[in-house]
Amino acid sequence: MAKKSRKQQSGGTPATVALTSAGVEYTVHAYEHDPAHSSYGQEAAEAMGVSPDRVFKTLVADVDGALTVAVVPVAGQLDLKALAAAVGGKRAAMADPALAERTTGYVRGGISPLGQRKRLPTVLDESAARHRTVCVSAGRRGLEVELSPDDLAKLTGAVLAPIGRG
Q1: Measured CA angle at 107 (ends 79, 139), to 5 deg
Q2: What pTM was estimated for this model as a whole?
Q3: H-helix segments, the chain
Q4: Could you say which of 5, 26, 54, 109 would form a disulfide bridge with 40 (CB–CB 3.0 to 4.6 Å)?
């Protein structure tokens, strides 16, 4: 993976700008987004030729009244009970999509765990640690960023926990 230059940063998304500012090594993967595809994450994995267990989706949930980011493999689902437990909460439910978009500054299907408008508590599924690199949204549909799970956790302040299933 190569570091992106300052020039590449200027035309990037808030996620890529955050990565460049932090001096983190990453690779951007762009592909033609198909609005008819049934799953943003599965589409990304297929388009990049990457195993779905290395491509992670970013979901926003409401845990006891506080928005919380969950980053889980696209091949599985979010375990809401496990997410609540990971942040010391009792109940979790998926957040209202419009509220998630307003709070993060990204549109659904392009929400990145990086460079969000408001930094939210973040939980990264522990399966990420099994991979040298993982892919997450770079901040818009059809754009992914590949980086080490350690860098992802550090930049988002994420805790690792078993929040994915399937």
Answers
A1: 90
A2: 0.90
A3: 6-10, 14-22, 40-48, 80-86, 97-104, 149-156
A4: 109
| Tokens of residue 154, six digits | 């550090």
Could you give the dihedral angle defined by the CA atoms of residues 143, 146, 151 and 156, in that order, rounded to the nearest 10 degrees? 20
CA–CA distance, 12 with 100 (Å, rounded to integer): 21
Tell me which residue has tokens 């990457």: 50
Asked if residue 40 lies in contact with residue 162, where contact means CB atoms within 8 angstroms, the answer is no
Q: What are phi and psi of 75, to 5 degrees?
A: -75, -10
Classify strands 122-125 and 159-161 as parallel, antiparallel or unpaired.
Answer: parallel
- The amino acid at residue 136 is V
Report the C-alpha gap between 30 and 9 in whole angstroms: 15
Q: How far apart are CA 28 and CA 122, in angstroms?
A: 22
Residue, of 41 and 123, whose pLDDT is higher: 123
Least Cα distance to 73 among 136, 17, 26, 122 occurs for 136
Q: How far apart are CA 143 and CA 135, in angstroms?
A: 10
Give SS3 for 108. coil
Token reading at 92: 């979790």
Whether the per-residue pLDDT at 8 is higher than 50: the answer is: no
